[in-house]
From TrEMBL:
Residues in coiled coil: none
InterPro entries associated with the record: PDCD2_C, Znf_MYND
Domain of life of the source: Eukaryota
Pfam families attached to this UniProt entry: PDCD2_C (PF04194), zf-MYND (PF01753)
Domain MYND-type, residue spans: 143-180
Protein's name in the database: MYND-type domain-containing protein
GO molecular function: zinc ion binding
Keyword set, alphabetical order: Metal-binding, Zinc, Zinc-finger
Region spans: Disordered: 207-228
Provenance organism: Patiria miniata
Length: 357
């Protein structure tokens, strides 16, 4: 995704069905669901690094956004990855414990990809071994179920890799018990655990200033009113009314801004301001921890919208995975750390339930 620069305009992302091959890592995709299309093939996160901080299970791939920083040589390729726990009960109100975020970046000249970009219209040929283009890890050594680092092999056939016992069990039940030892692959444990797969396509937000929220106008109106010498302090009154309906106002603002493009699933604006869904639980600067690698402050980079939930097949009558909006903050220097996958920060903002008001 081309990151917008000086003008700070917002780029919107939408989900679209596409051929599977377009979403493989050689095409540097932005995508939702399926397995992660890793950027760097070293230091691929292990199950321990993907543990849900509520239940300890391995978080599965939610989405990735390809967002190079063109003026920074080390970020010629750059992708942000979000993982989340599949257990709905781990998704608590305004709590990020069921999410894990990583940033990976590479210079143009690197050991994994050609200097020239791939031909976007040609699938990689069957003959071309795209799995062994350098690096410590090949796609075969990734977990057959979730696609993260597969440190354990099936003890019987030594063919399939898994990140943890749970995922091996899922695959075994899904059919590996029948195919184990034979060639060909029918087992598909992935289906039970991965989110539906989509490409993320982007476009600039077409939003005009005259459509902007009317906050400015209203304030000047209040100023005028305090000028007349009536006994009721209008400004005071307005302030009270405002605090009562503050929640609804922030939500109304959110809705107004998104109604133009109701299908948007992400909003990207590097170093910009997120569109908050509620006036409650807004992140303050001190809530955003500095980069754990270089200590620089983190800035806002993009947010995931509630619209994405519609495409994830997570709705059930009981508890389901849910969020108001997910705000992603990344190292303002986009530093190169000791690992090829550096943790970044996610803030989960929800709409306050009626019962808590
Ligand atoms: Zn969990
Ligand atoms: Zn796995
Ligand atoms: Zn086996
Ligand atoms: Zn950093």
């Amino acid at each position: 995704m081309a990151a917008p620069r000086a003008c700070k305009e917002t780029t919107l992302g939408f989900v679209e069905r596409t051929e599977n091959w377009r979403l493989s890592r050689q095409f540097f995709p932005s995508k939702v669901g399926g397995k992660p299309a890793w950027l760097s093939m070293t230091d691929i996160p292990t199950s321990e690094k993907l543990n849900c901080r509520k239940c300890g299970a391995v978080c599965v791939f939610l989405m990735q956004v390809y967002c190079p920083i063109t003026e920074q040589g080390t970020c010629f390729h750059r992708t942000l990855f979000i993982f989340c726990c599949r257990d709905p009960t781990c998704h608590k109100h305004s709590d990020n414990a069921a999410f894990v975020v990583f940033r990976s970046q590479l210079p143009r000249e690197n050991e994994f990809y050609d200097y020239e970009p791939p031909d976007e219209d040609v699938p990689l040929g069957e003959g071309k071994d795209c799995n062994s283009s350098g690096g410590d890890v090949t796609d075969d050594s990734l977990c057959a179920v979730c696609g993260c680092f597969g440190g354990k092999k099936c003890a019987k056939c030594h063919m399939k890799s898994y990140c943890c016992r749970e995922h091996q069990l899922i695959d075994w039940k899904a059919g590996h018990r029948k195919e184990c030892g034979s060639t060909g692959s029918i087992a598909n444990g992935c289906k039970q655990i991965l989110f539906p797969e989509f490409e993320l396509v982007t476009e600039s937000e077409d939003y005009h200033h005259e459509d902007m929220d009317d906050g400015g106008k209203e304030e000047s109106h209040v100023q005028d009113d305090t000028g007349d010498k009536s006994e009721i302090n209008v400004a005071e009154l307005e302030k009270m009314a405002l605090s009562e309906s503050k929640e609804d106002r922030q939500f109304a603002k959110f809705k107004k801004r998104t109604d133009h493009e109701p299908d948007q699933v992400i909003r990207y604006q590097l170093g910009g301001q997120p569109l908050l869904i509620s006036c409650e639980n807004q992140p303050q600067q001190q809530d955003i921890p500095p980069c754990s690698s270089c200590g620089s402050e983190r800035h806002f980079e993009f947010q995931v919208m509630p619209q994405l939930l519609i495409h994830l097949d997570v709705d059930s009558l009981e508890a389901s995975i849910d969020w108001g909006t997910l705000l992603i903050y990344t190292c303002a220097k986009s530093c190169d750390g000791a690992s090829a996958y550096l943790p970044e920060f996610l803030w989960k903002q929800d709409i306050v339930p009626e019962s808590n008001k």
